[in-house]
Queue: 2 jobs
Job 1
Amino acid sequence: MKQPGKFFVGDQVRMKKPHPCGGTDWEILRVGMDFRLKCLTCGRLILIPRIKFEKGLKKVISSVFTDNSAEV
Ligand SMILES: [Zn+2]
């Protein structure tokens, strides 16, 4: 599997805790001390400290640095 701790703008991730809208999937818009995430369900943007992000991360759905984009 992929090694944790490396995230890039454009990656799509799934969090353990769902957003109030019910969505759990997010797209990373900015990385750094804080991560900016866009909820893929409702389109809302949030800012979350990196440590919180890493704790709440369930899995990476798609990474911009992965070649197998043919995931169904
Ligand atoms: Zn949402």
Job 2
Amino acid sequence: MNAAPVATRSPLLSLRGVSKTFGAVNALTDIDLDVAAGEVVAIVGDNGAGKSTLVKVLAGVHQADSGEISFDGSAVQIADPSAAISLGIATVFQDLALCENLNVVENLFLGQELSPLRLDEVAMEVKSWELLRQLSARIPTVRVPIASLSGGQRQTVAIARSLLGDPRIIILDEPTAALGVAQTAEVLDLIERLRERGLGVIMISHNMEDVRAVADRVVVLRLGRNNGEFDAHTVSSEEVVAAITGATDNVVTRRRDRLHDAADAASTSAQPDLTDEETR
Ligand SMILES: Nc1ncnc2c1ncn2[C@@H]1O[C@H](COP(=O)(O)OP(=O)(O)OP(=O)(O)O)[C@@H](O)[C@H]1O
Ligand SMILES: [Mg+2]
């Protein structure tokens, strides 16, 4: 199924050397990122690390200042949100952008009603059920207002809506941030279903448990730069947190630590003569 090693897949979406500044702020510097079909890539990092900026560059909200983005093997420009959608990159922003007073069907089709001349209520309801069934969503009825749904159900509706355009990459910004334990589990199941459908999933998260539960790969951003990439199945939370905080940020610091350890070992093995003298 999706058991193929991540590294052997050719990426569907690929970023090389992507940078973005806001005035004097370097929000992203030389970012590389690959996402394959049927893969969940978690992007983690501290506040201000550049995660949302990266999402917005991919969603066409911001344009990168430099670097290359390729999709399905071709170089692309993502000039605006409609360019992202027509490429097949869908984004579920953290605020979900659902209308509280409208029901599930109305929210799913808001702005993209099926019939150009009049609302085709029946077709939209059928399509809504079909989508929700594909996601195995637990939503009792599609005619209830969003306001009466739980956080997990809302997340499901927002994800279902983004699937209407038949995307190949879906970006979820903090999909479990405001959810309880059961709802989080529901959304994590949903992410697995997206992967089973062959979508490439980019998931922004602060929660190491969630990341390790569903991601295939973890990409760490720190101060707007890549600061480590890990196999989510084998990495420990401590290693990821260290990369996030910069405690042990890269091979260079690991090498330096190794050299220090070796130097310490050499000096302690030379100590006994001295301490013999001193302890008398
Ligand atoms: N529109 C903007 N104008 C100016 N600076 C911005 C803008 N958007 C982001 N920044 C700056 O870019 C940097 C990266 O911000 P970004 O929102 O991407 O971080 P983040 O990783 O999403 O953080 P958080 O976890 O807090 O959401 C920050 O220093 C931020 O202040
Ligand atoms: Mg953010």
